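Handoff note, outgoing to incoming analyst
You'll be picking up this chain. Sequence as last confirmed:
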Amino acid sequence: MRKIFLFVFFMAFVSLNAYSQSDGGDNNIYSLVDEHAKYPGGQAEMLKYLKDNLKYPEVAKANNVHGRVIVAFVIEKDGSTSEFKVKRGLSNECNEEAIRLIKSMPKWEPGKKKGKAVRTSMLVPVNF
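Most recent structure output, in case you need it:
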């Protein structure tokens, strides 16, 4: 049941569609694209990656900190990640760990607009 909830929660964030921040140019960041960016192996592999690579901060464990950090970032045209921001955080340690985890992800398959790779905005929840 928890996996289904995480999957539905993740899909809700991935599916958030808005218009691009501006029109035209190569360096725009889009959230509305023809093809969304894809984690290698799909969503199940991304959830596995998050679970296997999360290092729960000792301070957070000691203080019984639990919850979700939501990280916004950009998938670049080459599939790398950049521009990390915590949209909803817990503690500084958990926020830093969530960003570290997203930064260390393998390259994604970039999003596409009119058949061309574009910079795409993404939100991912990290559970502690």
